[in-house]
Amino acid sequence: MSKRNKISLSVIRRLPKYYRFLNHLISQDINRISSSKLSEITGLTAPQIRQDLNCFGGFGQQGYGYNVAELKNQVASIIGINKSISAILIGIGNIGKTILTHLQFESMGFKINGVFDNDSLKIGANIAGFQIMDVNYLLDFCSINNPTVAIICLPMSVVGDIVKKLVNNGVRCFWNFSHYDISVEHSNTIVENVHLQDSLLTLCYRVNNQEN
Amino acid sequence: MSKRNKISLSVIRRLPKYYRFLNHLISQDINRISSSKLSEITGLTAPQIRQDLNCFGGFGQQGYGYNVAELKNQVASIIGINKSISAILIGIGNIGKTILTHLQFESMGFKINGVFDNDSLKIGANIAGFQIMDVNYLLDFCSINNPTVAIICLPMSVVGDIVKKLVNNGVRCFWNFSHYDISVEHSNTIVENVHLQDSLLTLCYRVNNQEN
DNA sequence: TAGATTGTTAATCGATTAACAATC
DNA sequence: TAGATTGTTAATCGATTAACAATC
After folding, report:
1. Are A12 and B202 in contact (CB under 8 A)?
2. A187: nearest CA in chain B?
3. CA B200 to C1' D7, whole Å
4. Could you report the per-residue pLDDT of B33-73, keeping only the tens digit for each?
């Protein structure tokens, strides 16, 4: 908390990892951990862990280390897991359906408030407790409910158009599963991309060039 | 190609992005591009693009730029898309099923040679043209077929055990959708992680801390 | 107190950007 | 040839690591 200056994206991207391992430690009934022990299990270096955590405050104690439960709560609150960010999901294809049924949004700081598709066969159907709405109703829905985040599970052909409309209607944050580069087109947005294809191609390179 | 020294992971991770945008340019019938134009559409800087590409050879021409089709072919061959890496997929839950049906492995340098699950209701069933095999047959399958890559779509509770067995049977490369940290436990492995939960929590932080 | 481990500054390392000579 | 743009070196910037004084 406290005087949080400019936290670099590198640090931010490690926070979920800390959170993950701290939960794991709790499930093992370990209630105290040093940065060097944490280093062993996470593969990060001990000074990096200490420096990362110190961006947000001094959670440790000299000579003792960190209290696992306390640190986990601190990290949870830094990430904002206790909040409830309003989100919509657009596109109930393979990926959209999987995301919706597989992930526990509510334990990760989000609340899904609407689910959209353009397929008349899907509209009205129920999936994971959500009734799929007609994408034609999307903008009306946005002006009424002002969702903060849109989860984009759309094919490349339609994503540009829909994202543009969303941005024009005040949606600025995206969890993007499409190949479309939202942040290039729309500068004032916050985007997390999950580019499965890029990940697979990166693996392709690394497997084919193992001598490196 | 040529004298490929130590290519940094930062550069490698941008290769799929170049490949993606080059394909997009081709579909728009654009056959020539400068690094500064490429910079505009990708959001990367022009010197970075030139420097990245020059890790692998001089594909451009002074005063002209890059030939799109040629550069795309070069990048494809650098990544190794023309190869056919033998892969198996383990765990046909939500994510496993989606991966298998949604992605075109063969156009990304891979060939799926086996699909495994431990659920007797699923074993023998057909999914996306693959007959699901009993995970008990996994190690026999590995010693006979020597797959290069294992795609891990397993829950946390079983992943450690199965990965260990795979490593002991010669599998060293992983596309990992689980929360398990393979490379920490097994040092001599190549792992690409898709941590959906980490991605979502990163978005959570960024949405909650927009002033940064 | 002595031992352990943090918090934090300084040093190093690597990646990005700037600049420009080479050259198409 | 003149204009454009690469390839490449040097400068900058940021992130990681090393080191150690502070302190529990």
Report:
1. yes
2. B43
3. 40
4. 999 999 999 999 999 999 999 999 999 999 999 999 999 99
